[in-house]
Design brief:
Strands 1-2 form a two-stranded antiparallel sheet. With 295 residues, it is mainly alpha-helical. Helix 1 packs across helix 2 and helix 2 crosses helix 3. The chain is built from nine helices and two strands, in the order αααααααααββ.
Length: 295
């Protein structure tokens, strides 16, 4: 009877000590899937917290957070102290898995595994991608040929690079769309302001036309008045009426204004009894006369 040694424990995850990452990652993948397929979905796809407005969304966030913490716990249990220190700052299981790939998967490929660029540039890729076809060349196992695991690792690396570039381009596209919306809004505002200014300009033009017509009418009236004045000045039959600048009455000037004379007469003369001055007086008149005021 052949004796078999004891294998690994089903309840304990495989331990990673910094070497043979590709082998450890495959074993860890199967171990997590055996625990729960949702745990592996959280590691592969990650999760985004929905806005906590309804009870259903809160419960979904709680379940996703629990799955994330379980997946992180399993990953940390499968790492030694040195490796776990490098990944302990991560807050998501997906972030932790991607960081392990960046740190250790590239180191293995630098040591001897073929890079992604070499695989794509080599002519053997076409032959390996056509493995499902019935005809396969007999010289496929040359010294320059690659195993299926190496090709799978190269494909995974390409896929990760594609995802990172896709996320970056999505962010750039979202920013450009926001800027485009802002520019469209500003364009609409400028168009509205332009229409308002056009209307104001038309209104000002119409008012300017009205003012020009009024100005022409006033010019015509002024010309007619000047002609009438010339006719009146030339014809002697029309008497020229003078206006007094003191009382503003017609028919006399300021020199012959009676109102001005009365005011000056009252100011310069006073009443005195008869016989006090040697002045010719009216005998038949009143007992007092007007005489110049003494200085």
């Amino acid at each position: 009877m052949a004796r078999f040694e004891e294998g690994r424990s089903i309840s304990c995850p495989p331990l990673f000590e910094g070497e043979a990452y590709s082998q450890w990652s495959n074993v860890m993948k199967y171990f997590i899937q055996a625990q729960d397929f949702e745990l592996w979905d959280i590691i592969e796809e990650g999760y985004i917290e929905a806005p906590k407005k309804k009870k259903k969304q809160r419960s979904e966030n709680d379940t996703k957070a629990k799955l994330n913490s379980r997946a992180m716990h399993i990953l940390l249990c499968g790492l030694n102290e040195e490796v776990s220190k490098k990944v302990s700052t991560c807050k998501r299981a997906k972030e932790m898995w991607e960081k392990l790939e960046r740190l250790y998967d590239k180191e293995e490929k630098k040591d001897g595994a073929p890079s992604c660029a070499n695989l794509l540039s080599s002519s053997k890729v076409d032959g390996v991608l056509a493995l499902n076809e019935p005809e396969v060349s007999s010289n496929s196992c040359d010294s320059n040929s690659y195993s299926f695991e190496e090709l799978q690792d190269a494909f995974d690396e390409l896929f990760l690079e594609f995802e990172t570039m896709n996320s970056k381009f999505k962010k750039i596209i979202s920013k450009l769309e926001c800027e485009n919306d802002f520019l469209l809004k500003t364009k609409l505002n400028f168009e509205n302001q332009n229409e308002i200014l056009k209307n104001d300009l038309e209104i000002s033009k119409s008012s300017n036309c009205v003012l020009e017509k009024e100005n022409l009418d006033l010019k015509v009236k002024l010309e007619s008045l000047t002609k009438e004045k010339e006719i009146i000045s030339n014809n002697s039959s029309y008497p020229i009426m003078t206006i007094c600048s003191h009382c503003h009455y017609h028919g006399h000037s300021i020199h012959t204004c009676p109102i001005k004379k009365r005011k000056s007469y009252r100011i310069r003369q006073v009443w005195v009894p008869k016989g006090t001055r040697d002045i010719v007086v009216n005998v038949n008149g009143s007992k007092a006369i007007w005489i110049p005021k003494s200085k």
